[in-house]
Amino acid sequence: MGIFRRKDKAAEVEKPAVTEVDTEEVRDVETDAAVGEPVTGTSDDSADDARTDPAVAADKNADKLARTPRLNSREVDRSNGPFDRTEVDDLEGRVDFGSIAIVPIAEMELRLDVDESGQEITGLTAIVGESACQMQVFAAPKSSGVWEGIRGEIHDNLLSTGGTAQEMVGALGYELHVRMPATGPDGRTTHSAATFVGVDGPRWFLRAVLSGKAAMEDEAAEQMLEFIRGVVVTRGGEPRAPRELLPLRLPENTEPVREYDEAGEELPNPFDRGPEITEIR
Fold first, then answer.
1. Residue 42 pLDDT > 60, yes or no?
2. Residues 99-131 as b or e (16 or more Cβ within 10 Å = b)
3. Contact criterion met (CB below 8 Å) for 175 and 166
4. Percent of the chain clearing pLDDT 90 (strictly above)
5. 18, 76, 162, 260: which sits with the fewest CB atoms below 10 Å from its CB?
6. Cβ–Cβ < 8 Å for 196, 207
7. Alpha helices in 207-262 (DSSP H)
8. Which residues pair with 209 in a beta bridge?
9. Which class for 181: exposed (0-12), middle (13-18), buried (19 or more C-beta within 10 A)?
10. What is the C-alpha end-to-end distance of the chain, expressed in Å?
11. What confidence tier does 252 reach under pLDDT thresholds 50, 70, 90?
12. DSSP structure string for 62-131
């Protein structure tokens, strides 16, 4: 597996290592239930309760959501990001992957999620310490966003497979705080925590999945949310179907570098599996 680093050692912004790995297993989303539109909001103590007691979170957030006006998803405040390419002067200080440009974080590692053929990059996963943030960007209609419908599909799919999903108001609008079921080596069902964040922009939709500490601890989640705010999306002018994955590519001036141990064996990928994600169709 290749690790990609910038050739230009004198660049002002230190570029994170980028690891290319195989695509993850995904769960199909087949239901179409609708839920409310995202709104602007900020996290409070209910986020802590949600990570320790889902029942408490449900009570607190039901009242919070009832008091929050339902806005069109396009009205969520993006003044501090994530940005459309037309909203920034240039991409200086960012690493450009085509449809997504990111601001690197110190000691960040980047993993490129690829399809089964190994030819198409389907997503970016940023790993900082024990937290991960997987991002994908999709085309969306001119007249409306898609996060409302997608959020409902993820919610219903998780419930139908034995998981849980709690809708909460976060810094970038509605989030889904979920626990996803999986079968362990001993045959028992285990659950992993994740937070789905969605942002509807002009003719695009950015989806982020937080896992690890970022799905369980507020401080780690805030770091990843700031990372998401720094993203610039380049939609392009090509006609695309709603929910079509926007293309990603390797940054310019990169070259594959393989790493080896003292015995001369190529080092394996340290991240055998990334955050469990739900496929959008």
1. no
2. bbbbbbbeebbbbbbbeeeeeebbbbbbbbeeb
3. no
4. 52
5. 260
6. yes
7. 218-229
8. 134, 196
9. middle
10. 28
11. confident
12. HHHHHHSPP--GGGS--TTSSEEGGGSS--TTSEE-BSEEE---TT-EEEEEE-TTS-SEEEEEEEETTE
Q: Please, which residues have CB within 8 angstroms of residue 40's CB and are 6 or more apart in sequence?
A: 71, 75, 76, 77, 173
The tally of CA atoms less than 13 A away on the side-chain side of residue 270 is 12
Residues 112 and 121: beta-carbon distance below 8 Å? yes
**Token representation of residue 144:** 């409306």
What φ, ψ does residue 224 adopt, rounded to 5°? -70, -35
Task: Report phi then psi at 279, rounded to 5.
Answer: -75, 135
Looking at residue 115, its pLDDT comes to 87
pTM: 0.69
Which of 56-70, 193-207, 228-242 has the lowest average pLDDT?
56-70
Q: What is the pLDDT of residues 119-145, one digit of tens each?
A: 899 999 999 999 999 999 999 998 888
CA-closest candidate to residue 233, choices 44, 101, 94: 101
Handedness of CA 210, 212, 216, 220 (dihedral sign): negative
Residue 144 to residue 265: CA distance in whole angstroms: 51
Residue 214 · residue 224 · CB < 8 Å: yes
Record the tokens describing residue 75, joined without a space: 């009205």
- Judge contact between 170 and 61, C-beta under 8 A: no
